[in-house]
């Protein structure tokens, strides 16, 4: 089963390409040179894995059920919580906290997952072809791609600010 699509726009976004074998999602967020590998495993309702490499990237750990995702992306101190609920065709929830976080509002229909993570100004569009990948697994992968893109933008902003 294949997961393919894009998080973000044409100029400021990441492609997401991954395969799902029923227990493992493996693939790539972004391109060959600027991007991160994604490796997530689901066993007994627990999800574990890593986005990126050994030194640059983040861990994913938590719970993934039939109707709900509760996962920590990153470490205990520098990380973000993700809470999603599947209700009918809607996947909704919150990424990165109640106050400084982003809404997740996605719809799964016709083999696609589409919608938005974040607000009108600071959010990113999601458009994925599911090809048999469960909606919550795809939503988790989309949020990982969103976080990778947000982390890359933050690093670029910090680099620009420090060189001024």
Can you characterise this structure?
By secondary structure, the protein is an alpha+beta fold. Helices cover 18% and strands 54% of the residues. The protein has one helix and twelve strands; from the N terminus they run E-E-E-E-E-E-E-E-E-E-E-E-H. It has one helix at residues 135-163, and strands spanning 2-8, 13-20, 24-30, 35-43, 46-52, 57-64, 68-74, 79-87, 90-95, 102-109, 112-117, 124-129. The protein has a twelve-stranded antiparallel β-barrel. The mean pLDDT is 90.
Question: Can you give me a brief rundown of this structure?
Answer:
With 164 residues, the chain is of the alpha+beta class.
Mean pLDDT comes to 90
What level of helicity do the residues show?
10-25%
Estimate what percentage of residues fall within beta strands: over 45%
CATH class: Mainly Beta
Number of domains: 1
Count of helical stretches: 1
Q: Give the N-terminus to C-terminus distance in angstroms.
A: 47 Å
Q: Could you give the order of strands across the largest sheet?
A: 1-2-3-4-5-6-7-8-9-10-11-12
Derived from helix and strand composition plus strand pairing, the structural class reads alpha+beta
């Amino acid at each position: 089963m294949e997961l393919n699509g894009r998080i973000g726009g044409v100029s400021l976004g990441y492609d997401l390409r991954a395969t799902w074998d029923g227990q493992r999602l493996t693939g790539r967020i972004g391109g060959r040179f600027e991007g991160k590998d994604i490796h997530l495993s689901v066993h007994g309702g627990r999800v574990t894995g890593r986005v990126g490499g050994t030194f640059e990237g983040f861990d994913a750990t938590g719970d993934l059920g039939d109707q709900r995702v509760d996962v920590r992306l990153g470490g205990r101190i520098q990380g973000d919580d993700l809470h999603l609920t599947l209700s009918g065709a809607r996947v909704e929830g919150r990424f990165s906290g109640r106050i400084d976080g982003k809404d997740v509002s996605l719809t799964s229909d016709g083999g696609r997952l589409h919608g938005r993570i974040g607000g009108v100004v600071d959010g990113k569009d999601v458009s994925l072809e599911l090809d048999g990948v469960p909606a919550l697994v795809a939503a988790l992968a989309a949020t990982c791609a969103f976080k990778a893109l947000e982390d890359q933008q933050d690093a670029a902003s910090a680099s620009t600010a420090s060189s001024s």
